[in-house]
Structure of Phosphatidylglycerol--prolipoprotein diacylglyceryl transferase:
Amino acid sequence: MITYPQIDPVAVSLGPLKVHWYGLMYMVGFAAAWWLGNRRADKPNSGWTREQVGDLVFYGAMGVILGGRLGYVLFYNFDKFLADPVWLFEVWTGGMSFHGGAIGVLVAFGLFARKTGKRYFDVADFMVPMVPIGLAAGRLGNFMNAELWGHPSNVPWAMIFPTDPMQVPRHPSQLYEFALEGVVLFLVLWFYSARPRPAGAVTGLFGVGYGLGRITCEFFRTPDVQIGYLHGGWLTEGMLLSAPMVVIGTAMVIWAYRRHQPGATA
């Protein structure tokens, strides 16, 4: 067993103002996307300017925050929302959903494409390789908050989290998600997108990669207490929401390559 590092979830306290590590991790993700996007925009004939990258990161950030909050409320705590609709706006109490944030970002891509006159998948394929860095940062934030821990386990790297009422060694599932949904997915997408690909292929690969990584990690992660397990006692809400990403992402990759075969109609 590995001792969980004692981490104060509050990074900075300035009187009544408290800045949490989890919030800072969001800033790290947005800053990384901006920096990486600028690197690609600076390449000859990229079709992008630094100003456009900055605008797109802003659009994406709004999609993440608004979509993530709405997704958490609708997918994970709808009963609480019905009992207290004002709770939707109490973002300081915590609660964000990746799948809601993903929907928000997809909408943001569409709004940005409409504003700039770019094709939708030119925008999406440019941006999604940078997204896993933000996912990795977010999972580190979960780890620092000692939340979303895994099932009890006797593996050598199991940890006892201070927020666990049972105080038993558990899988550090946040770090599993950091590795699969963050580091591994970033490397796959970054190198795959380094060469020209059919429109939509990079975005589709993101869906496949994230969906598979999230479903895998869900087998080690304790489900949200207000939902628990779904059908059969093994299916989780995260699995249910991620499975369509794998199916749709696979279909998108196949469609992208078939559409761009010699003789295909663009």
Observations:
- The first strand starts at residue 10 and ends at 14.
- Confidence is low (pLDDT under 50) at residues 262-266.
- The CA atoms of residues 83 and 168 lie 34 Å apart.
- The radius of gyration is 19 Å.
